[in-house]
Write a structure and sequence with these properties.
The chain is built from 2 helices and 8 strands. The longest helix has 17 residues. A hairpin with a 2-residue loop joins strand 5 and strand 6.
Length: 171
């Protein structure tokens, strides 16, 4: 076997295995954070925006706690849209903004949603569902960058994000 190939195969195997892990995400049950204290489910008043075409080409999880970061994030979110929607007011004394971005995808049919924020004794987890289209789904052939932005009460800020992947069946 070629010496270069002998080196390349293990390196690629390690790179793929590392790429499949999210070291920032705790176990789904949150045992690393102690007992559950509360759970919060977003409702219509929590929604700030949900977009399929955004300025977030990379997978991103953000907790925004100040006006400056909020303004910069909003500008990035709508970087290619003119006129840009007005920046929604947020009272950072009592609330936070959470943004989850799926990253760039080569077609439509992808989505990302915040399901809940669970507070534990030693931190919080935002549970997110990332949806992709199944093999039989008809999708637009446009580049997409799905993003969801919500506001939540101060004190529920997550310390970690747990993302679940779901494939939609379109049969």
């Amino acid at each position: 076997m070629n010496p270069l190939r002998r080196l390349l195969v293990p390196v690629l195997a390690v790179a793929v295995s590392l790429g499949c892990q999210d070291a920032s995400s705790p176990p789904v049950d949150g045992r690393a954070f102690g007992s559950r204290v509360s759970a919060w489910l977003p409702d219509s008043t929590a929604a700030v925006t949900h977009e399929y075409y955004s300025g977030f080409g990379d997978s991103t999880n953000l907790v925004i706690a100040d006006s400056y970061t909020w303004a910069v994030t909003w500008a990035r979110l709508y970087a290619s849209l003119r006129p840009r929607p007005l920046l929604p007011p947020v009272d950072f004394r009592t609330e936070r903004v959470v943004l989850v971005a799926l990253g760039g995808r080569s077609s439509g049919g992808y989505d990302i949603r915040i399901d809940s924020v669970v507070r534990f004794q030693r931190g919080g987890i935002t549970y997110v569902t990332a949806t992709s289209p199944g093999n039989r789904c008809v999708t637009t052939q446009a580049l997409t960058q799905p993003v969801e932005v919500i506001r939540l009460p101060q004190g529920l800020e997550p310390m970690a994000f747990q993302r679940q992947a779901v494939v939609r069946d379109c049969s």
